[in-house]
């Protein structure tokens, strides 16, 4: 009677008392926003791009970086000036190089007495053997500013030179400065671009002049709250946030939050046809959609928290950062968003306002017709989908080698082109310098060992301070190559044999080597952990064993196909020179955790309908009901990640494209065709060992099997 009364618009008195609840929820969010929005603006003040904050926690190069930061003069920024003229250097060219060095040394004097004494030996200007280039190294103490602030003035100080004399300022500090320039203002750029993209897609999805604004406001509130939450985590627990993770936070919250909005609106629109009261309709919509949304969020959060097991600081830091963002999106979309919809009423759907009707007849629609076609050609749909995924996976045979630091930029800056020039005219100094720290009493012994090590072009002692002394080592091979990495390994092996020296080897290339090694280790640990966690969540949600295993298998196949197709694009079309070390792990995490979202949206609805209609009709009903929303959600999530592809850094382009392509592949092919086809082939056995997998005898009177399933659901 109560349900009938509600459906007819006669709301019981208890329901009337709940009219103030949506307004209370909105009021609480207004108060929360007043506190959190000012804090969200402070997130950029705690983001960092220091190497020590991104390096592997246990790596040898990390220990060198920490030691450099703690010793006087050890944290110097190293710039390398390379002057060159195609026809050979002139007398005026050499004089100009000397003037530049003297002016720069005067402008940025050493901060320690030992370094000052070193400079008394004369300018360390080195001519090339071909007579066409000269170079010198400038050590600038960080007291003068970080690389991004001083790289410009350092370059400007050497502008006055003879016509035809070219100069590239390169070196580790110059690369860091150019990299920071790429990230300058990236948070605002990503935020605004994402807002524009989501707005356009929501308008196209709902074809309403007003409805798009509601989810956008709710997701925006979630994004700002997540930024404030991450800021508080940094302040309270010392979590490291770099610019890359800050950008990914925005993308995650907007993409996932909008997906939740699409799913809830789809259910809400359904229930508005069956309930006259909007609050009652929303309650039923939440009962239907919230379990899938919560399970989806729990899966992504659990997957992200698996990153805490990673040794690489930049990867492990993304775990709590991303988890905080997903949690904020979940809370906002299950509280603020439905409250706004209820307060605004049915008119928010104008011009396609859903009307209450007790005689509403459902039309098959596009997804209903697709389901019928899949049902008729189950094997064709299954094998055809697998064939497409298999062809795409062939791309994995392409170039999956590691991307060098110099190849990270879409448009190579001066610091990168400078390394090419340096390599051309000074082949004996082909690699980036290594830094060795050892105890002062063992400096000469370590120096002699290093000079005898194959692959070392030059080794020179530095200054001593704080109980340590440093040695600069130049390898003969080009930066970030296998040959240079082999030299670093040989040097480490050699110096570690000296008992009591406590020698450690670091430097830019050593950091990249350690990062790649650690990433390989992290992948072997984190990927199985993510798979296990996602499988457990699916098992708990579906209360079955077969279905989660099949769904996980489709996710893995989908990832392989997306990865292979993307590698083909990167290698053949875009001409990238490899994959950034973090791309495989990040892409796997996002595609598995986010791809499972669509599994959850589809199969949770299929399980719900199976209890009433049987497995075959239940899956067809679920596909018809969720096909549109899954496609829309996939387009929105893919578009938000595609925002990363608009940034001038190869790593972000690779992550953005791979995840966007994978999400579309998952939503349009795997979840819309392959999973329904496999389910129809396996039939009720897919729910094993739950009761839904058991056959039921047809009762007298010709009642259909789906009625027996309905009785089974009632018994449960």
Could you explain how this protein is built, in words?
The protein is of the alpha+beta class and 716 residues long. It folds into four domains: 1-54 and 186-356, Up-down Bundle (Multidrug efflux transporter AcrB transmembrane fold); 76-182, Alpha-Beta Plaits; 365-397 and 514-716, Multidrug efflux transporter AcrB transmembrane domain (Multidrug efflux transporter AcrB transmembrane fold), CATH 1.20.1640.10; 433-506, Alpha-Beta Plaits. It is built from 27 helices and eight strands. It has helices spanning 2-7, 13-16, 20-40, 43-46, 51-54, 60-70, 91-107, 113-119, 147-156, 172-183, 186-206, 213-237, 243-272, 278-305, 313-334, 336-344, 365-376, 378-393, 414-425, 443-451, 482-495, 508-542, 546-573, 583-613, 615-642, 650-682, 705-715, and strands spanning 77-84, 126-127, 133-140, 166-170, 434-438, 456-465, 468-475, 504-506. The strands form two sheets. Strands 2-3-1-4 form a four-stranded antiparallel β-sheet, with helices on both faces. A four-stranded antiparallel β-sheet has the order 6-7-5-8, with helices on both faces. α14 (278-305) packs antiparallel against α15 (313-334), α14 packs antiparallel against α24 (583-613) and α17 (365-376) crosses α25 (615-642). It is elongated. The two termini are 23 Å apart.
């Amino acid at each position: 009677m109560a349900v009938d009364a509600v459906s007819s618009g006669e709301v019981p008195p208890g329901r009337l008392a709940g009219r103030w609840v949506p307004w209370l929820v909105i009021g609480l969010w207004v108060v929360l926003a007043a506190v959190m929005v000012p804090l969200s603006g402070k997130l950029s003040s705690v983001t960092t791009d220091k190497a020590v904050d991104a390096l592997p926690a246990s790596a040898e190069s990390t220990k060198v970086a920490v030691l450099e930061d703690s010793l006087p003069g050890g944290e110097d920024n190293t710039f390398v000036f390379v002057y060159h003229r195609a026809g050979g250097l002139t007398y005026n060219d050499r004089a100009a190089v000397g003037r530049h060095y003297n002016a720069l040394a005067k402008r940025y004097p050493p901060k320690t007495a030992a370094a000052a004494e070193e400079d008394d030996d004369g300018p360390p200007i080195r001519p090339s053997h071909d007579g066409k280039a000269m170079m010198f190294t400038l050590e600038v103490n960080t007291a003068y500013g970080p690389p991004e602030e001083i790289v410009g003035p350092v370059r400007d100080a050497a502008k006055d030179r003879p016509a035809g004399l070219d100069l590239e300022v390169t070196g580790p500090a110059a690369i860091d400065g150019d990299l920071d320039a790429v990230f300058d203002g990236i948070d605002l750029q990503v935020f605004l671009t994402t807002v524009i993209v989501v707005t356009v897609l929501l308008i196209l999805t709902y074809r309403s002049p007003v409805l798009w604004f509601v989810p956008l406001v709710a997701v925006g509130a979630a994004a700002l709250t997540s930024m404030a939450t991450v800021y508080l985590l940094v302040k309270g627990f010392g979590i490291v946030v770099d610019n890359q993770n800050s950008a990914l936070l925005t993308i995650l919250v907007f993409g996932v939050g909008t997906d939740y909005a699409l799913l809830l609106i789809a259910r809400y629109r359904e229930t508005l046809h069956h309930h006259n009261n909007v609050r009652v309709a929303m309650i039923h919509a939440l009962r239907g959609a919230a379990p899938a949304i919560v399970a989806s969020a729990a899966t992504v959060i659990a997957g992200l928290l698996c990153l805490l097991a990673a040794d690489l600081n930049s990867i492990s830091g993304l775990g709590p950062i991303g988890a905080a963002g997903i949690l904020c999106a979940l809370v906002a979309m299950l509280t603020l968003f439905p409250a706004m919809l209820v307060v605004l009423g049915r008119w928010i759907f104008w011009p396609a306002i859903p009307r209450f009707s007790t005689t509403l007849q459902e039309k098959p629609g596009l997804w209903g017709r697709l389901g019928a076609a899949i049902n008729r050609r189950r094997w064709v749909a299954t094998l055809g989908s697998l064939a497409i995924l298999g062809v795409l996976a062939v791309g994995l045979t392409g170039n999956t080698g590691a991307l060098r630091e110099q190849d990270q930029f879409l448009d190579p800056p001066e610091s990168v082109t400078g390394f090419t020039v340096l390599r051309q005219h000074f082949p004996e100094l082909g690699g980036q310098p290594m830094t060795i720290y050892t105890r002062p009493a063992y400096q000469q012994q370590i120096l002699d060992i290093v000079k005898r090590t194959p692959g070392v072009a030059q080794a020179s002692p530095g200054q001593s301070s704080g109980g340590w002394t440093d040695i600069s080592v130049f390898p003969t091979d080009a930066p970030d190559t296998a040959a240079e990495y082999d030299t670093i390994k040989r040097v480490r092996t050699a110096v570690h044999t000296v008992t009591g020296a406590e020698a450690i080897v670091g430097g830019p290339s050593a950091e990249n080597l350690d990062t790649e090694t650690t990433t390989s280790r992290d992948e072997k640990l984190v990927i199985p952990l993510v798979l296990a966690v996602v499988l457990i969540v699916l098992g708990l949600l579906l209360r079955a064993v077969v279905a989660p295993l099949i769904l996980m298998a489709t996710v893995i196949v989908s990832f392989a196909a997306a990865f292979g197709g993307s590698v083909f694009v990167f290698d053949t079309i875009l001409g990238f020179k490899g994959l950034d070390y973090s791309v495989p792990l990040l892409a796997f995490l996002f595609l598995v955790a986010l791809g499972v979202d669509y599994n959850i949206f589809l199969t949770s609805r299929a399980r719900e309908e199976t209890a009433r209609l049987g497995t075959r009709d239940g899956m067809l009903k679920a596909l018809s009901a969720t096909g549109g929303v899954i496609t829309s959600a996939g387009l929105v999530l893919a578009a938000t990640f595609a925002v990363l592809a608009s940034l001038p850094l190869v790593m972000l382009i690779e992550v953005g494209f791979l995840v966007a392509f994978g999400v579309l592949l998952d939503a349009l092919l795997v979840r819309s065709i392959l999973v329904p086809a496999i389910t129809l082939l396996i039939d009720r056995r897919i729910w094993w060992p739950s009761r839904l997998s058991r056959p039921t005898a047809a009762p007298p009177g010709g009642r259909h099997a789906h009625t027996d399933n309905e009785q089974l659901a009632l018994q449960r």
